[in-house]
Predict the structure.
Amino acid sequence: MNMIFKGRNFRFRDFSLSIKLIIVYIVLTVIPISVLGVIAYRQYTTSIVEQIGEYMPRFLDQANLMIEQRIDQLTSLPEQLFNSGEAVRILRKGSYQSSSDLNNDKYVMNNYLSATYLERSNPDVLGVFIYSKNRLFSAARMDFSGMNEDSPLIPYGQDLDFRGKVKMLLSTDFSLKFQSGEPFLIIMKEIGDVENRTDLGTMFIAVKLSFIDDVLLGFEKNENAVFWLMNDQGEIFYNTDRKLIGTFDRDLKKYPILEGSFLQTLAEESTIMSISRSPSYKWLLVHSTRLQDMTRRSELVWKVTKYLYVGLAIITIVISILFSLRVTRPLEKLSRLMREVEQGHFNVDPGIHTKDEVGMLASSFISMVTTIQDLIQRNVQIELSQKEAELYALQSQINPHFMYNTLEMISMAVEEGERENVVKMVALLGRMLRFSVSNKARFVPIGEEIAHVRDYLTIQNFRFEDRLSFEIIEKGEVGLYTPKFILQPLVENAIKYGMETRQQLHIRIEIIKTGEWGDVGANTEFRIIDNGPGIPEDKLEELHRQLKQSVTERKDSGFGLKNVHARIQFMLGKEYGLRLESQYGQGTNIIVHIPVLDLNSAYILSEGKK
């Protein structure tokens, strides 16, 4: 394309890129839109009904197909159950020797159902239920009612013969209700044991109907248009107006056709109706829109056409500027937030919610930051679980050795006829076992922890007799709370090393409180003081260094000290824990430093660490 001005020959390829874009924009948009606008205005009003009658049934058929495809995907979910051998093993069990075995199987199965069907890429699944051999396994995203072992989805029990097929039922067929009250479908499938050729039970998967919104809204942008799904009796189980779900379409018998489009006039208002029947599930998908809403668009097109020429040049410039800013500013903001994340600031929000490539980049960035935060929190939780496991491992190590010595003393006392000592030792041992086994709380009253240590020292006193003495100094702090099982490992450590070199070992336990809960600097200290051999200076420095590190491997020497220190820091913070004071040849003082904890604060800390 060449243009000649005053003897000059201007060729199109010689223009700047911005001029080229403006020319192309005008040629491809302004002129065609103007011509098409006039034509559309003349033809739109007269052809609206015919156009909808031609394309809307096809759109509804396609929407029906897409809905059926999604439901077909959902009906394949029961097959995932056979990916777990543990789940199949539980379903094969027919009886239990104890209720604890049944509860354990329910816990395992419910966790598997939740991880497989709720936590993965199944956002449409509301809940999963398995009714097998008078047992009910369940996992749901929210509270539900109308579904339990005494009243399952009867008459749809475990012995129905589906002949390997999946059966789909509506929420109106059941008493099952979810807290949200939203409608759902029930996908029901018999679970068959291929190896044993037996029926293991029936699986019910409750699926939200909201996924239909995403399908239908892609076909109709008119906010006043209405879609609904109903069965042959006119019962509506889905409607864009949620208030109409569960009602009946009383005009169904008046429809001239059940597949196609027609114009319906009720109360002097004309409505364009389009209907499509599902070939697989036999439901009716209906689209309804008022005729006046459709013709109103032609007036808007005419007004836009009249002012298009005047505003097109200005709009073109504004659009180009806004487009440039819309692309560059979000990218600059993302770059700045990335630098903040590099510095450890994870609470960032770019505020970009567009659906274009920039919006996708922002969404991926937020997802990445969230994943990093989750990994950090998960790593902390794993370390805490590791410390708890080490505590139980330590208890398991201590208890067999201690019980062996105690039972040996009881046996010797029985042989010697010391009936009173036997009764005392058995009672003390029983209290210690009850404290260690029955109470699973992370925090216990100081009085209970002291009583446990006193029982332990009393039993050891029976063993060592005059070689061991102890005293416990209390000042009314027994009503406060402390992490469980932090004193016995320290006392046992003192006895172990003290008895190796001392003929007489004396242990004193002191409880000191400074301030009240909530006060700045309010703390509780336990002091375990002995007159044992003490700790050499180089060994004491090594212990101080180890207390600052994580417990990563099992060691006999100092394992109890490091385990208690690590547990206190994980439960209460890095500023708390153990402190060692010792002089070689004179004794050792172990100081346990924790905050002042009442019942409420102990409960809050315990719940926060779960």
Observations:
- The chain is about 50% helix and 20% strand.
